[in-house]
Design brief:
By secondary structure, the protein is mostly helical. It is built from 9 helices and no strands. The chain folds into 2 domains: 79 residues, Rna Polymerase Sigma Factor, Chain: A; 65 residues, Winged helix-like DNA-binding domain superfamily/Winged helix DNA-binding domain (Arc Repressor Mutant, subunit A, Orthogonal Bundle). The relative contact order is 0.07. This is RNA polymerase sigma-70 factor (ECF subfamily).
């Protein structure tokens, strides 16, 4: 740790609490006060020549910088136009109309499949089950599940095309 860092740490130890209390009294906002104190100490770090002055001079400089930051913030457009609120705004929700219509089309097309094909397609795509799991569940060989899945998807594609859905 260099001499400047030690000096800045000593300045922080000596003045940060007093600066914080001063800014809280000026702003009434603890969060803002922390930000102002941090910015004040950052400016002191950027101007190490200030830290070499007498203790009273450093303190006066820090409080002047803090006061100016508070005044700048109070005058800022953000402060005059933005207001804190206790509740979050409603989240934007995307229009799900098309998704609902698509799901109706698929559900209607699934009804047109044979029960065996429908069971395999629904189990695989909506249930997330593997071919082996479906074979065990339906009591048929895995080759039969694969065949039913292939022909079921083919029939589903044709049913959707009949309803005007293009790929």
């Amino acid at each position: 740790m260099g001499a400047e860092d030690e000096l800045l740490e000593a300045v922080h130890e000596s003045h940060a609490d007093a600066l914080y209390r001063y800014v809280v009294r000026r702003t009434g906002d603890e969060e803002e006060a922390r930000d102002v104190v941090q910015e004040t100490l950052l400016r002191a770090w950027r101007h190490p020549e200030v830290l070499e002055r007498s203790e009273e001079s450093v303190r006066a400089w820090l409080f002047t910088v803090a006061r100016n930051l508070v005044v700048d913030h109070l005058r800022s457009a953000r402060r005059t136009r933005e207001h804190a609120t206790g509740h979050l705004p409603e989240r934007e929700e995307h229009d799900r109309t098309q998704a609902v219509l698509d799901s109706w089309l698929v559900a209607d097309a699934l009804v047109s499949l044979s029960p065996d094909h429908r069971a395999v397609v629904v189990g695989a795509y909506y249930g997330g089950r593997s071919v082996a799991e479906l074979a065990t569940e339906l009591g048929v060989p895995t080759g039969t599940v694969k065949s039913r899945l292939h022909y079921g998807l083919r029939a589903l594609r044709l049913a959707l095309q009949e309803k005007g859905v293009t790929s």
